[in-house]
Design brief:
The complex is a heterodimer of chains A (394) and B (462).
Chain A (H helix, E strand, L loop, with lengths): L2 H18 L4 H5 L4 H18 L16 H13 L9 H14 L2 H12 L4 E4 L15 E5 L2 E12 L6 E7 L10 E7 L5 E6 L8 E12 L3 E2 L5 H13 L2 H20 L13 H26 L7 H23 L21 H7 L1 H4 L5 H12 L10
Parallel strand pairs in A: 1-4
Antiparallel strand pairs in A: 2-3, 3-7, 4-5, 5-8, 6-7
Chain B lengths: L5 H19 L6 H6 L18 H14 L5 H13 L5 H12 L4 E3 L11 E3 L4 E10 L6 E7 L5 E7 L82 H11 L17 E6 L8 E10 L5 E2 L5 H35 L3 E2 L2 E2 L4 H30 L4 H26 L1 H5 L5 H13 L4 H10 L7
Parallel strand pairs in B: 1-4, 2-4
Antiparallel strand pairs in B: 2-3, 3-7, 4-5, 5-8, 6-7, 9-10
The chains are: A alpha+beta (394), B alpha+beta (462).
C-alpha cells in the first residue's frame, strides 16, 4: 500500500463523512429517550456497514479485511468529523466477534457474525458482585441437563444489556475444580425465560451498566464456546479484544477530544484570557499530545503485530485509560466552571464527548472495568517482565 | 539500504543492536574498535568509506551507547559531526573530512551549543572573523576538527571549520569503564581536571603546529569569563587546547585542501583564537568543552555552506541532536529496567523475592510502559530525521521531551528499587541516573521542547 493509496483512502473517508455524519446528532442525542438512542445507533451502524466501515477489523471473509493503516485513517477521520460512535454494537463487533473467531465453531460463526452485521446487540456477562478483579471467583452455575445448561446466578456491569439480544456468559460447570478450571463459556439469548435485567445508575447519572439475574435459564448445549470447563481460556480472547483491537479507534477518538481541548484553550476562558497563552497550560497540552502520539503508535504496533508480546494489550489498555483520565481531568481543571455545566453528555458520544467534568468522571469506566489498572500492572509485571507471582492467598 | 523492505530492515536493526551490545559490553568500550567496525560511517556514502545507511541505523547504535553508558564521543561524531557534514555542499575538502570522520581518522565535533534548541551563538563579521561563545559543547575537548555553525555577514547559517588538533594527535578514547559493572575506581574523579587523565599524546609540545587557542587560563582572559561561569573559582582552569598559532592551523587546513571552492582569504595570525576549555560535569561518562571565538579570521575556503536552505539545515541539525540524545536516554531506561527486574527477581526480603510485592512489581510495570512509549516516540522521530520529514521537528521535540524525562524517572526508580545497594557507588546505578539527568538538560530541557510543540497550536495544530 503506497502513500498515494492511503491519501486516496483518506479523501474517500472524508467525502463519506461530509455526506453522512448527521450535522445535529449531538443536540438530538442529548437527553434522548432510550428508544431514540437505540434507533439512532442501529441506523448509524447500517450506514457504516454499507460503506464498509462497521467492522473493518474483521477478517475479509466476514466483511472486514481493512489493512491496519487504513483502519487508523478511518478512525482518525471519523473522530475528526465528530461522527457518532458505535456505542451499542461495541461488545458485538469487538468482544463477541473476537471470541467467536478465536474459539467458536463454524456453525456458531455462521449463526452469529452475520446477525451482528444485521444489528444484533451483545452484552458481556462476566463480572459478579463477588467476582470483580478476581473474575475467576465467579459463582454463577451452569448445570448440564440433557441438551441444555441450566444457569443460575447474578451478573453485573453488563454494559448495554438492557438493549442487548445476546450475552457472553461465564458460568461454573464444575464446582469441585480449582477456580479457573471449572468455568465454561456460553452464548445466552437474553430473551430466554428466567432472565431479569436491571440497569444500575452510575457515577455519571447514566444507567447503561446492568445487573442480570439468572433463574433456571436454559441455554442450549450447542451454545458452548470451546470445551466444557475450558471457558477461562476462551474468556482471555474476549478480554484481549477489549484491551487490544478496540484501542485503535479509542486512541483516535481521544485524539479528537484533544483537538477539542486545544480549540477550547485557544478561545477566551475563565477571566477572559486564552488558556493557551498561559505557558503552564501550553506545556501541559504539549505533554498530553506527546503521550497521545505515543499511545497511537503503541496501538498501531499492537494491532499490526502478528505476534504481540504477552502483555502488550495490557500495556495499551493501561496507558489509554490513564491518559484518558489525565486529558479529561486537565480539560476539567483548565476550562473553568463552565466545564461543569454540562449535566448530560450526548448519547452516542465517546469518553471524550466535550462535557469535560462528566467525561472526567466517566474515565473511571476505563480504569476499573476490563481488568482494573492494578490488575493490568500485575499482568505486565508477571507476563512481560517475568517477575515472581504473588504467593497464593489461600 | 534505503530501499530495503521493512522486515529486512528490522532484521538488520536487530543484528546491529546485538553486535553493538556485545561490543559495548567490553569495559571500557574502545573508540578505535567502534570506528573500525564502521559505526561512525553508517550514514556516509560508500564512495567515502561509509555504509550508506541512514540515521535510523545510527539511532540503533546511539541507543546501545546509552544502554552501556558508554564514554565515547559517538553522539558527537556520528550523531552530529557526520550529520552536519552531510548537510553541507559536497566538495573535495568536505568529502575528505567526511571520509576521515567515517573511518575514525578525524574526530569531528560540531560546536552546537548544548543548551540550545535552535540557532547558533557564533557569527562571522564582515572580515570573516569568528565571534561567539558556546558554554557547553559536547566532546569539544576531544575534537581534532571543530565545525562551528555560524551566521555569515548576511546572517546566513554556514559552517566555519576549525582544526582543533591534527588527526595524528587525536586523543584515544578515555580509559574509564562504562558499564555499571565496571570498577568505578577507574573512572575519572570529577574533582580533578579531566585533562590530566588524558594520555600523553594529547599533551602536545608547546608550539606544535595545529594546536589552537591561548595557553593562558580562560578565566584570566578578558571577555571569556562567561565560558567558565559556574565553575568553582578555586578550580584549576581546565584548559585543554594548547598554544600555537592560528596561522599554523590555517596552513594545516590549507594543506589538506585539494582545489578549494572559493577564494582564499588573507589570514591574520594575530586576529584572535578559538579556545576550548574542559567543563567537568557530574556525569563522568560525558565530556564537554566551552568554545570561545574572539575574532579569529577564518579563511574563505574554511567556510562551508549548506547544500539546501541554510536555516532549515541548521534546524535539522538541532533536531538530530535532540533525537540522538533521546535515543541515548531510551537505551539507558531499558538498561535500568532490565537491571531492576533482575534484581527484584532475586533479592529476598520478608521471606519473598521483592518482585512479588505489588508495590515493586507495579513500579516495574510503570517503568516498562514509560520505556515502551519512549521507544515508539524515538522510533518515529529517528525515522522522521532519517527521511528528512518536514515535521521532524515536532517528532524530535516529542521524543526528546518524553524519553529524556522518562529516563530520569526510570533511573531514579531503579535506584529506589535497588535499595541501599542502589545508592552505592559500586552498583553503578548512579552512572545512569547522572547521565539520564544530564541528557534531560542536553539540547533543551523537556519544557523547551514542549514549548516548540505548543507553538504549533497557534497555527491550528494538531
Amino acid at each position: 500500500m503506497t502513500a498515494a493509496d492511503l491519501d486516496a483512502f483518506r479523501a474517500h473517508v472524508r467525502d463519506w463523512c461530509r455526506a453522512n455524519v448527521p450535522a445535529d446528532w449531538r443536540r438530538a442525542q442529548t437527553g434522548a429517550p432510550d428508544e431514540e438512542f437505540v434507533r439512532f445507533q442501529k441506523e448509524w451502524f447500517q450506514r457504516l456497514r454499507e460503506a464498509g466501515f462497521a467492522v473493518p477489523h474483521w477478517p475479509a471473509s466476514w466483511g472486514g479485511g481493512m489493512p491496519v493503516p487504513e483502519q487508523a485513517i478511518l478512525y482518525r477521520e471519523l473522530a475528526a468529523h465528530d461522527a457518532p460512535r458505535l456505542v451499542l454494537a461495541f461488545v458485538a463487533v469487538h468482544h463477541a466477534a473476537a471470541t467467536l473467531l478465536a474459539a467458536g465453531t463454524g456453525e456458531q460463526r455462521a449463526r452469529y457474525l452475520p446477525a451482528i452485521l444485521d444489528g444484533e446487540i451483545w452484552a458481556q456477562g462476566f463480572s459478579e458482585p463477588d467476582a470483580g478483579s478476581d473474575l475467576a471467583a465467579l459463582r454463577t452455575t451452569a448445570r448440564r441437563e440433557g441438551d441444555v445448561y441450566v444457569v443460575n446466578g447474578q451478573k453485573c456491569w453488563a454494559s448495554g444489556a438492557a438493549h442487548a439480544d445476546w450475552c457472553l456468559l461465564l458460568a461454573r460447570t464444575d464446582p469441585a475444580a480449582p477456580k479457573r478450571h471449572g468455568i465454561s463459556y456460553l452464548l445466552m439469548d437474553l430473551r430466554s425465560p428466567g432472565v431479569g435485567i436491571r440497569p444500575t445508575r452510575q457515577a455519571t447519572g447514566e444507567s447503561h451498566f446492568c445487573e442480570i439475574f439468572l433463574d433456571d435459564v436454559a441455554v442450549p448445549a450447542a451454545n458452548l464456546v470451546g470445551a466444557e470447563n475450558a471457558g477461562w481460556r476462551v474468556a482471555q480472547e474476549t478480554l484481549g479484544a477489549e484491551r487490544g483491537m478496540t484501542m485503535l479507534e479509542l486512541a483516535e477518538r481521544l485524539g479528537g477530544g484533544f483537538r477539542r481541548l486545544v480549540d477550547r484553550c485557544s478561545r477566551p476562558g475563565p477571566g477572559g484570557t486564552r488558556p493557551l497563552d498561559d505557558p503552564l497550560i501550553a506545556d501541559r497540552l504539549a505533554e498530553l499530545e506527546t503521550e497521545l502520539t505515543g499511545l497511537r503508535a503503541l496501538c498501531t504496533a499492537l494491532v499490526g503485530d502478528a505476534h504481540p508480546g504477552p502483555a502488550d494489550a495490557s500495556i495499551v489498555k493501561l496507558y489509554y485509560s490513564e491518559l484518558l483520565q489525565r486529558i479529561t481531568g486537565f480539560g476539567t481543571e483548565t476550562l473553568g466552571l463552565a466545564a461543569h455545566t454540562d449535566l448530560r453528555k450526548p448519547a452516542s458520544s465517546g469518553w471524550e464527548s466535550g462535557a469535560w467534568a462528566l467525561d472526567f468522571v466517566a474515565s473511571w469506566e476505563w480504569t476499573i472495568p476490563g481488568g482494573a489498572s492494578e490488575i493490568q500492572r500485575t499482568i505486565i509485571g508477571e507476563r512481560a517482565l517475568g517477575l515472581p507471582r504473588e504467593p497464593a492467598a489461600f | 539500504m534505503a530501499a530495503a523492505a521493512p522486515a529486512d530492515l528490522a532484521e538488520f536493526h536487530a543484528e546491529l543492536r546485538a553486535v553493538a551490545r556485545a561490543l559495548l559490553s567490553a569495559s571500557p568500550p574502545s573508540w578505535d574498535r567502534i570506528t573500525e567496525v564502521g559505526w561512525t560511517g553508517l550514514e556516509v556514502e560508500e564512495a567515502l568509506g561509509g555504509a550508506d545507511a541512514t540515521f535510523a541505523e545510527t539511532a540503533v547504535v546511539l541507543q546501545e551507547m546509552g544502554r552501556a553508558a558508554a564514554s565515547v564521543p559517538y553522539l558527537a561524531v556520528a550523531g552530529l559531526g557526520v550529520g552536519a557534514l552531510a548537510l553541507l555542499e559536497p566538495g573535495p575538502d568536505r568529502d575528505d573530512l567526511l571520509r576521515a570522520t567515517a573511518t575514525g581518522d578525524a574526530l569531528t565535533v560540531v560546536a552546537l551549543d548544548a543548551e540550545t534548541t535552535d540557532g547558533t551563538p557564533f557569527r562571522l563579521d564582515a572580515e570573516f572573523r569568528l565571534h561567539g561563545t558556546a558554554a557547553f559543547v559536547l566532546d569539544a575537548s576531544r575534537a581534532d576538527r571543530l565545525l562551528v555553525p555560524a551566521l555569515d555577514p548576511t546572517a546566513t547559517p554556514v559552517i566555519a571549520t576549525v582544526a582543533a588538533a591534527p588527526a595524528r594527535s587525536r586523543p584515544p578514547a578515555p580509559d574509564q569503564g562504562e558499564s555499571p559493572a565496571a570498577d568505578a575506581d577507574t573512572r575519572p574523579d570529577s574533582s580533578r581536571p579531566l585533562a590530566s587523565t588524558r594520555s600523553g599524546s594529547r599533551e602536545a609540545p608547546d608550539g606544535a603546529s595545529g594546536w589552537i587557542g591561548p595557553r593562558v587560563p580562560m578565566s584570566a582572559r578578558n571577555g571569556s569569563r562567561e565560558a567558565v561561569e559556574g565553575a568553582p573559582e578555586t578550580d584549576t582552569p581546565r584548559v585543554s587546547a594548547r598554544g600555537g598559532s592560528w596561522e599554523a592551523d590555517c596552513r594545516c587546513l590549507s594543506a589538506s585542501a585539494q582545489g578549494g571552492s572559493s577564494v582564499v582569504a588573507e589570514v591574520d595570525s594575530r586576529a584572535g583564537s578559538v579556545a576550548i576549555a574542559d567543563r567537568a560535569v557530574l556525569d563522568a561518562t560525558r565530556t564537554f568543552g566551552s568554545v570561545v571565538a574572539d575574532g579569529v579570521a577564518v579563511p574563505a575556503d574554511a567556510v562551508w555552506r549548506f547544500r539546501s536552505d541554510p536555516g532549515v539545515a541548521l534546524r535539522r541539525l538541532h533536531d538530530r541532536a535532540a533525537v540522538a540524545v533521546a535515543c541515548d536516554s531510551l537505551g539507558l531506561s531499558e538498561a535500568m529496567l532490565d537491571a531492576t527486574v533482575a534484581y527484584a527477581g532475586t533479592r529476598e526480603q520478608f521471606g519473598r523475592r521483592i518482585g512479588s510485592f505489588q508495590a515493586v512489581k507495579h513500579a516495574c510495570a510503570d517503568m516498562l510502559v514509560q520505556a515502551r512509549v519512549a521507544r515508539e516516540l524515538v522510533a518515529a522521530a529517528a525515522q522522521a530525521v532519517a527521511v528528512g520529514d518536514p515535521d521532524a521537528g515536532t517528532a524530535a521535540a516529542m521524543a526528546k521531551s518524553f524519553a529524556c524525562a522518562a529516563a530520569v524517572e526510570v533511573a531514579g526508580k531503579a535506584m529506589q528499587l535497588h535499595g541501599g545497594m542502589g545508592y552505592t557507588w559500586e552498583s553503578g546505578v548512579h552512572l545512569h541516573l547522572k547521565r539520564a539527568s544530564l541528557n534531560r538538560s542536553l539540547f533543551g530541557a523537556p519544557a523547551r521542547h514542549r514549548a516548540r510543540i505548543a507553538a504549533r497550536y497557534r497555527d491550528g495544530a494538531p
